[in-house]
Every structure is written in structure tokens, then in C-alpha cells.
Amino acid sequence: MSFTTRARGVAIPGMAKVESGLLEAGGMVMLGIQAARELTRGPYKWFGEFIEESTLILVRCSLPLILAVFAFGFGTIGVEAGGTFQALGAADRAGGVFVTAAVREVATWATAMVVAGVGGTAICADLGARKIREEIDAMRVLGINPIKQLVLPRMIALTIMTPLLNLVAILFITLSGILVMKLLFNEPSASFEATFSANFIPIELFASVFKTVIFGAIIAAVCCYKGLNAEGGAQGVGRAVNQAVVISFAALWIFNYAYTSVLLAQFPNLGGLR
């Protein structure tokens, strides 16, 4: 019996959408599993495609990410945190805030948003256009596995480039913190660096990198799945791209909340300034 009905045959409002959402989520997971299986099987003729996609993601995402994290670190976190600490007479302690902002949350979140909104949508549109032009079906007729040749290299590219871009984001948001404290609050960079180092521990960086690896995998699974299942011409591709962005953002929010909760539960010392 369908999830949309009860034993008496009465339709449950909204359950059809829930059922459709669960089926799509299962399809995304299965697509990721299929790609992972293909990773262990030769030949590895998709490596060139992986290099090309990685380069495109890096080129398209780097500048927007740098501008976003620098502006956010300077104009929001830096001004707000610096003003609060200066009012308390402890402006030199602002470096500790940037550990949380740069390493744990803001850099990872901004990276995921940019990668999903720029790199993920480009991949979804590319696969969707191939599906509409029936290139995917033609590949299957010719005995070429589209999962191996198209999906796998794009998934690996997103999964690897997301944590690498996250390191770039950490660097530039930290630089923005040093600049805002020096230019607006006349705090020497040495005091910022001292409190930043005092609050930074290796688990922060490891957790940040690991989280963005999962972020990249989520974005890859969602965008590739929506691209491969696009239908309805050019308008269908546009709908698939829009849905991919919305689903990616929602999945990232849910995962980020769960991940941070588990991280702070396992390492309570990360919850306060030192």
C-alpha cells in the first residue's frame, strides 16, 4: 500500500511529497554507492575528466569564496567581535573567536554554499543537458557506463576540491581578522596570533576538513542525481538545477547541525575560549 493511503483508503495530505522525497533521497544514496563501487574497478579512463572538472571547480569557486569569506570575516565577525571585546577591555582576545569562525563554522559553511551554488549547479546543468540531448541513453547503447565516465569523476572532484577550498577560506578569513583588529581596533597582529594559537588545536582543523569532505560528497550526490533525472527540455534542466541547490542547502544544514553537536559532545573543551 502507498504511503499516501491508510487502510481505509483515505489520502493523507502531504504524504505524497514525503514519499517522493524519501525516494529521491534513496536514489541519491544509491547513486553515491554505485559511484563508489566503480571507483574500485578499472580501467581508469575517467581520470582526465576528473582533472578537468577539478580545475573548473577551482577556477569558478575560488574568487567568489575568497571575496565572501574575507568580507564576512572583516565586516561581520571582525567588527562585531572586536567591538564587543573592546567594550569589555579584552580586544586582544578576539583571535580566539576567529578559531571558531574561521576553522569550525563560517569557513566550512561558506565553502559549502559556494561549491554548491557555483560548482554543483554547473555539474547539474551539464548532466541535465546531456540527459535532455539523450547523450546518457546513447552512452548506454554503446556499452559505456555513464556512472563511471560522467558521475564518478565529478563526484570525486567535488569531494576533493571542497576541503581544499575550505583551507583557502580558512586562510583568508583569518587574514581578514588580523586586518580588522589592526586597522579598526589598533590591536597588534601578535596579540591576535597569540590568542588564535592558544585556542587552536589540531582536532579543529581535522574536523573542519573531514566535514567539508562530507559536504562535497553530499553536494555531488544531490547535483549528479538531479542532473541525471532532468526531464522536460531546457525548462526541466532549470528546475533540476534549482531543486539541486535547495536540496543541497537543506541537507548541508541538517548534517552541519548533527556534526557540530557530535563534535562538541566528544570534545567539550572546544566550546569555550582559552
Keywords:
274 residues, mainly alpha, 8 helices, 82% helix, elongated, disordered N terminus
Please describe what this structure looks like:
The chain is mostly helical and 274 residues long. It has one domain (43-266). The protein contains eight helices and no strands. It has helices spanning 15-39, 47-87, 94-132, 135-141, 146-185, 189-199, 202-228, 233-266. The radius of gyration is 22 Å and the shape is elongated.
Kindly state the mean pLDDT as a whole number?
85
| Count of helix runs | 8
Number of strands: 0
β-strand percent reads: under 5%
User: Which shape, going by the Cα principal axes?
Assistant: elongated
Write the layout of secondary structure elements.
Layout: H1 15-39, H2 47-87, H3 94-132, H4 135-141, H5 146-185, H6 189-199, H7 202-228, H8 233-266
Helix pairs in contact: 1-5, 1-7, 2-3, 2-5, 3-5, 3-6, 3-7, 3-8, 5-7, 7-8
Give a quick summary of the entry.
The chain is mainly alpha-helical. It is 82% helix and 0% strand. The longest helix has 41 residues.
